[in-house]
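Hi R.,

As promised, here are both runs. First protein below:
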Amino acid sequence: DDFRPVNTEFYLLRSQHFPDLLREKFKEYVSEHYVLPMILLGYHQEVAQALEQNASIIEDKSSMPAIMASLARWGFSELFGRIGSTMTGNWINGGDTSLRGEKLTPYLLAAGQRDLPNLDVIQVIVEKFNADVNIRFEADMVDKPKVYYQSTMALNRHYKPGDTILHQLAQGTHWWHEGAIRYLLEHGADPNTRNHQGKTPLC
């Protein structure tokens, strides 16, 4: 049901005042199936502004964890910061659930899964929202958006239970990981943390 009105409104954007349309849409319910396509179409400022202005009146925010996880994975540092500033409570360290009741991978760990450079998002998560740089992956956590692996080797690089972001980055699969590791160490990440297999990031 979420997709049909979204597609219809995309065609009406030129004939309507888009910020007003979004503010009206976000009054009661924020859907990831509405927000994420808008962001991918380039309506960053409009989406952020509508969420900021409606933050105090949105009744159903159950899709926000999935939205924030996607922003972290996709590298939208400015949007993550702006939309995150509208959220309350100790949300930054994750453990939130999706609409299906799934426990989502924490945002910092999600940011570490991006192939392209994502240090900007990590910096926002750590410095703006004071995330726990040693937060661990748990066996019952799921990735949002879902990660599809093209090989067993790639699958084996996924977080193992007890892993921190350093365990992921220390595999060195992408050139930007070295700088991210240095940044995280400077901000308190523990290189001696052992996962449930007893391995540190250096093993």
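And here is the second one, sequence first, then its structure tokens:
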Amino acid sequence: FKPRRWLTFNSEVRLDPNDALLRESQTSAILQPGRDWSFAVTHRYTRDDAWVRAFLERAEIGHVATGWGDQPFFTPTTFWYDAAGHQIAFHSNVVGRGRANVEHHERVCFEASTFGRFLPSNVAVEFTVQYASVVVFGRGRVVTEPDEQRRLLTGLIQKYFPRLQAGREYQPITDPELKKTSVYAIAIDSWSGKENWPERAVQ
């Protein structure tokens, strides 16, 4: 007896009726049996706000995209998602291309991602990698008010060094130190998240 080939395909989507945006999609394909037994493969796309927030809270490195005319510019950076202000905070040198770009054009894009294993396949187009990522679209600005600068920089430090406290393990941020750095905030207009973390690639 030779088993027949058959394919089961399932797809579920969730659309937000308020903004007509795709919030979540779950797609799965099951192929079995054939000449060789195969397996199930699942692809997940999610745009759930809670998932995006949680990802931004734990992601370690982000990339900020700014522009000057028709020249795009990417900057890798540490960052902090300020939930209270619904914004992304980061910092850089006082003078540089990133600051000049933000002052010249406020529209920016931000990306953070994490990766797992690279997954081989016996089909060329099915080689893949486990990944999760978030993309943010918003408006960047240079923060100039000292109290806001301190709050954002303190949030950034606490994200990466949660056990250290200002005034105990390190001295509080001083005015001269604020003059040596540029502090930025990206007001978030929209965001999206995507995750694809299969155990095996399609064979």
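A quick note on the second one: The longest strand covers residues 128-143. Let me know what you think.

Best,
J.
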